[in-house]
Specification:
Blueprint lengths: L1 E5 L2 H23 L2 E5 L6 H7 L13 E5 L1 E3 L9 H13 L15 H16 L8 E4 L24 E6 L4 E6 L1 H4 L4 E6 L5 H9 L18 E7 H4 L4
Helix pairs in contact: 1-2, 2-3
The protein binds 6-phosphogluconic acid.
Function: Hydrolysis of 6-phosphogluconolactone to 6-phosphogluconate.
Catalytic activity: 6-phospho-D-glucono-1,5-lactone + H2O = 6-phospho-D-gluconate + H(+)
Family: Belongs to the glucosamine/galactosamine-6-phosphate isomerase family. 6-phosphogluconolactonase subfamily.
């Protein structure tokens, strides 16, 4: 595990964009395509915007990139809270990514059906190859949740399913999320976060006693892959 701390958000976002470029080029060279799991929430927006900029957009063969989601809010795909909509507006539309390269968590189905349909889609994508995403971008909630692995939820104990749906009382919403066993299979996982508001959660997850029920991001421990944390100084203030 490595922790990268940046003076400002610009250099943090540039470094995370460089990571996406490097992983994309390596994966495409190695197996002809790149599977990228996007994070929800607000923090990834600037990364997406930088990747579509003139400085970066020509560094990746976008026709060989396949996009997945770490989690989704159970809202229509055109709803302002939709993680898909955010990625569509900040990444897919600017890069003109065809729909067949984007694996959406389908919220027109029931939460359970959507979760199992997504698990099937992931398994079909990997076929006989191991279900190991090339790069997973994760965020961190102020309560130390990541994806939709929220404190005190039963999904934290999940060992079999790759994708689960759950109701989150705190946000009064159903969510669909990749599970920790699937996330931890990945070749590369990167947390991307910034702002002083994240500092207590960062401290608890990285320096606190192990308590997965309370700090779900502690669950993220890749089996054979690489784990990196990208944060700014305000978010890292309690671990420096
Ligand atoms: O759908 C979501 O909300 C996310 O996947 C969630 O895990 C997010 O990454 C954190 O809540 C951080 O969100 P911010 O980046 O907005 O602080």
């Amino acid at each position: 595990m490595s922790i990268h701390i940046f003076k400002d958000v610009d250099s943090l976002v540039a470094a995370s964009a460089d990571l996406v470029v490097t992983r994309a080029q390596e994966s495409i060279a190695k197996h002809g395509r790149f599977s990228l799991v996007l994070s929800g929430g607000s923090s990834p927006k600037r990364l997406h915007e930088l990747l579509t900029s003139d400085d970066y957009r020509n560094k990746i063969e976008w026709s060989k990139v396949f996009f997945f989601f770490g989690d989704e809010r159970y809202v229509p795909a055109d709803h302002p809270d939709s993680n898909y909509l955010m990625a569509k507006q900040t990444l897919f539309d600017p890069l003109k990514i065809p729909a067949n390269q984007v694996f959406i968590m389908d919220t027109t189905l029931s939460p359970e059906a959507s979760a199992s349909a997504y698990e099937t889609a992931i398994k079909e994508y990997f076929g006989t190859a191991p279900v190991k995403f090339d790069l997973i971008i994760l965020g961190l909630g102020d309560d130390a949740h990541t994806a939709s692995l929220f404190p005190g939820t039963s999904v934290l104990q999940e060992q079999q399913a790759l994708v689960k749906s759950l109701y989150i009382e705190k946000v009064k919403m159903n969510r669909i999320t990749l599970t920790a066993p699937l996330i931890n299979q990945a070749h590369h996982i990167a947390f991307l976060l910034f702002g002083a508001g994240k500092a207590p959660a960062v401290e608890q997850v990285l320096k606190g006693a192990v308590n997965i029920t309370q700090y779900p991001a502690q669950l993220i421990k890749p089996i054979a892959g690489k784990l990196e944390w990208y944060m700014d100084e305000p978010a890292a203030k309690n671990i420096q």
